[in-house]
Amino acid sequence: MGSYLNPGNKGFCESLNSAIYVDKSMLIKRTNQVLNTRQKFMCVSRPRRFGKSMAADMLAAYYDRDVDSSELFDKLAISREESCKKHLNQYDVIKINMQEFLSAAGSVGEMLSMLQSRIILDLKRKYPDYADSNHLIFVMQDIFAYTKHLFVILIDEWDCLFREYRQNIEAQKQYLDFLRAWLKDKEYVALAYMTGILPIKKYGSHSALNMFTEYSMTDPGNLAEYFGFTEREVKALCTEYHMNFEEAKAWYDGYQLVSHTEKGNLCHSMYSPKSVVESMLRHRFGTYWNQTETYEALKIYIQMDMDGLKDAVVRMLAGEGIPVNTGTFSNDMTTFAIRDDVLTLLVHLGYLTYDSIDETVRIPNKEVSQEYVNAIRTMDWHEVIASVEASRKLLEALWAMDGKTVAEGIDRAHREISILQYNDENALSCTIHLAFYFAREYYTIIREFPSGKGFADICFLPRKLYAEKPAVVVELKWDKDVYGAIEQIKNRQYVEALKDYQGNILLAGISYEKKTKEHTCVIEKMQK
Fold first, then answer.
1. Looking at residue 457, what is its pLDDT?
2. Where is the domain boundary, 315, 341, 374?
3. Do residues 342 and 403 share a domain?
4. Spatial separation of the C-alpha atoms in residues 398 and 402, rounded to whole Å
5. For all residues of the chain together, what is the average pLDDT?
6. Fewest beta carbons within 10 Å, which of 9, 115, 170, 501?
7. Based on the domain organization, do 175 and 257 belong to the same domain?
8. Quick one: what percent of the chain has pLDDT higher than 90?
């Protein structure tokens, strides 16, 4: 074994030995399917702490010809696949973490020189009779020519250079040209698997690495279920660790990834792995994913002076989905022509989730939403924070059935969030969602809740841990009588879907009068 050539299975053993290990070995089935094909180039990009390095360690352990990893995989799902034994420990593996070389070098040229010399050193130790060149490509060509040993090349943190050298276009091109020369059209490559946060950088109308198939947070292809923990996996962990699944869902769910197949669209509801693991081990739900990076990273992007960006962030904070075109994104962290480019970057960073069916982005869950609030507190968006901070008292007024105070609170939120175009029930709904931001502490909030003979505009459903809180059915009216809203809830049987709910139910009608520019609110307790 070497440092980079056939590094062994120690990294994967550590994952298997950890208190929590979720079996993602079926990823190997996907990589085996593309071995020695035109699709053998895979670039998998997803946010930090979403299991990229663990997957690379697993692939190294599986393909490495210098170790016997059969016992490691015997009890995993991949062992039931026909291809498992065929390819197990049959390849020379080169596994590198680009961050290691970038951190040690003073320039991109020095980094690439260091990388090649270190890999060549390993190759010469293993194949002294065939590796007599000082050029990496020639060494690997000679080894393959004489031994017919194919290489699986695993590159972790492949995009770190684009994060460190954000403005250095020449350095970026030099790096991409090296990867292209090393990998493209080379007989010795059985599989090239790269992981990072960003998709492959675009230059003009083409990419220097156009042979790669990309699997990203905007288009995960058939790898969606390996981009985090699935709902089934999280349910099993909650059962094992005696944690409330509904709370786990509120905190960490929300990454909606879609695989487009010949049989239709498969929607995968994915959870942040780092956060789920930490919450299980600590027996406490909280913010864990962002402990390795402060909210400053998010703040840099949401305060950019892009047309409509602030409006979009406020609407997403209120729970809305925002239409976005991801096609203009240049796959870097500096080139932003329009608002959509910033929003697309936030998807790749994990601060937003993208629905490729309706082409919208939204804030995925409670944990990430808190990061937005943390960032906004240190910005000049004082009106947004004022509404968020007032939301606790507004919720208490709702529980107390104090319609006058609720109406005044919504009036205040409307005035403070003046950037929103206030001209229909959708804008009214957005204001109310932001005004009741704190309600997410206790409730699952559903828009257009299917119920009875129609859809209630908003429904607050208390999660199991907060079953003592009342459910709330809200009907909105624009320039119409507020009492008509309450009657509509009753006449259309909007509470029918809550017939099995054992707690109290509040009915709230909220109306906005265009002439007076004031809100009114009427609250009743549902009589059972």
1. 81
2. 374
3. no
4. 6
5. 90
6. 170
7. no
8. 64
pLDDT exceeds cutoff 70 at 469:
yes
Q: Are residues 275 and 356 both part of a single domain?
A: yes
- Give how far Cα 350 sits from Cα of 317, 346, 411, Å: 15, 6, 33
Q: Within this chain, do residues 127 and 154 fall inside the same structural domain, yes or no?
A: yes
**pLDDT single digits (tens) 286-309:** 999 876 566 778 899 999 978 889
Q: Which of 131, 146, 109, 187 is nearest to 5 (CA)?
A: 131
Residues 451 and 501 in one domain: yes
Instruction: Encode pLDDT of 367-381 as tens digits.
Output: 999 999 999 999 988
| Of the residues 374, 396, 412, the one at which a domain ends | 374
Closest residue by Cα to residue 443 from 250, 231, 248: 250
Containing domain of residue 401, as a range?
A: 381-525
Structural domain count of the chain = 3
Q: Are residues 252 and 399 in the same domain?
A: no
Q: Is the pLDDT of residue 416 over 50?
A: yes
Burial (0-12, 13-18, 19+ Cβ within 10 Å), 245: middle
Sign of the torsion formed by the C-alpha atoms of 32, 196, 12 and 223 = negative
- Give Cβ neighbours of residue 311 (< 8 Å, ≥ 6 apart): 419, 420
CA distance 303 to 296: 11
Q: At what angle do helices 382-399 and 403-416 cross, to 10 degrees?
A: 170
Helices 10-17 and 52-63 cross at an angle (nearest 10°) of: 120
Q: Is residue 73 included in any domain, yes or no?
A: yes
CA dist 438 and 441 (Å) reads: 6
Task: Give which of 99, 10, 104 is closest to 54, Cα–Cα.
Answer: 10
CB neighbours (10 Å) of residue 211?
A: 17
For position 492, which CATH number holds? Answer: 3.40.1350
**Residues present in the chain in total:** 528
Burial class, 319, CB count within 10 angstroms (exposed 0-12 / middle 13-18 / buried 19+): buried
Phi, then psi, of 403 in degrees rounded to 5: -60, -35
Contacting residues for 458 by C-beta, under 8 A, at least 6 apart: 429, 432, 433, 445, 446, 447, 449, 472, 473, 474, 476
Dihedral sign, CA of 300, 373, 256, 53? Answer: positive
pLDDT digits 0-9 by tens, 73-123? 999 999 999 999 999 999 999 999 999 999 999 899 999 999 999 999 999
Q: Are residues 453 and 324 in the same domain?
A: no
Is the pTM of the predicted complex or chain greater than 0.85? yes
- Quick one: pLDDT at residue 278? 96
Whether the per-residue pLDDT at 454 is higher than 60: the answer is no
Nearest CA among 247, 279, 254, 285 for reference residue 268: 254
Nearest to 519 by CA among 403, 363, 397: 403
Half-sphere exposure of 129 (CA within 13 A, CB side): 4
